[in-house]
Specification:
The structure holds two protein chains of two kinds.
Chain A (H helix, E strand, L loop, with lengths): L2 E5 L2 E3 L5 E8 L8 E6 L5 E7 L8 E3 L7 E6 L4 E6 L8 E8 L7 E4 L3 E5 L2
Chain B lengths: L3 E4 L2 E4 L5 E7 L7 E6 L6 E5 L3 E2 L7 E6 L2 E6 L9 E6 L6 E2 L3 E5 L1
Parallel strand pairs in B: 2-11
Antiparallel strand pairs in B: 1-3, 3-8, 4-5, 4-9, 5-6, 7-8, 9-10, 9-11
Classes of the chains: A mainly beta, B mainly beta.
């Protein structure tokens, strides 16, 4: 059974940093791209970025709203994807979902974690 | 960036009704479209991908169609468990973008 479990969310002050982790199980983690999607309270879904599988160079792409502040990485030996969030702003407050892309390149998101809440507030 | 416009933003329907939600892309996306269902307090769930391919385990009352810029999600006979918010997503190009969502409520 495919499982994605996010951790690391919480309350953080504006300008500070936070790292989210996504621990995967039930599939060969290294074969798939992994994405992060967020949802601000009462709002819709916003794609944050993804990291491709090593077979596709492990390259990353990001939404303009987070580019230069957020970094996605992966540790295939531990089946974990990370979202490093720096210079956090109040508008980054959201539930952050870790998702699996259908392929190693990127694509539709066939599995989702339960989400972790990040609150940016002073 | 490709903009995704969903309509309607909300609808009221009864159990057994046929429901149609549309999603229009600002440019052609070559069927690189997925539909997700989200219930309150839960993560979204993939329903369809490649515009019309049903994800494993999803009931056959859900179907998708379309091409080019215009796509449709149809629920042939609405069930009590289908009351939720539905999102389309294009993955033709980055940044991947979602529609604003359609909330399906009980009439």
């Amino acid at each position: 059974e495919v499982q994605l479990v996010e951790s690391g969310g919480g309350l953080v002050q504006p300008g500070r940093s936070l790292r989210l982790s996504c621990t995967a199980s039930g599939f060969t983690f290294g074969d798939y791209a992994m994405s992060w999607v967020r949802q601000a309270p009462g709002k819709g879904l916003e794609w944050v970025g993804f990291i491709r599988s090593k077979a596709y160079g492990g390259t990353t792409e990001y939404a303009a709203s987070v580019k230069g502040r957020f970094t996605i990485s992966r540790d295939d030996s531990k089946s974990i994807a990370y979202l490093q969030m720096n210079s956090l702003k109040t508008e980054d407050t959201a539930v952050y979902y870790c998702t699996r892309d259908r392929s190693g390149w990127y694509g539709d998101l066939d599995y989702w974690g339960q989400g972790t809440l990040v609150t940016v507030s002073s | 960036d490709i903009q995704m416009t969903q309509s309607p933003s909300s609808l009221s329907a009864s159990v057994g009704d046929r429901v149609t939600i549309t999603c229009r892309a600002s440019q052609g996306i070559s069927n690189s479209l997925a539909w997700y269902q989200q219930k309150p307090g839960k993560a979204p769930k993939l329903l369809l991908y490649a515009a019309s391919r049903l994800e494993s385990g999803v009931p056959s009352r859900f179907s998708g169609s379309g091409s080019g810029t215009d796509y449709t999600l149809t629920i042939s006979s609405l069930q009590p468990e289908d009351f939720a918010t539905y999102y389309c997503q294009q993955y033709y190009s980055t940044p991947q973008t979602f529609g604003q969502g359609t909330k399906v409520e009980i009439k």
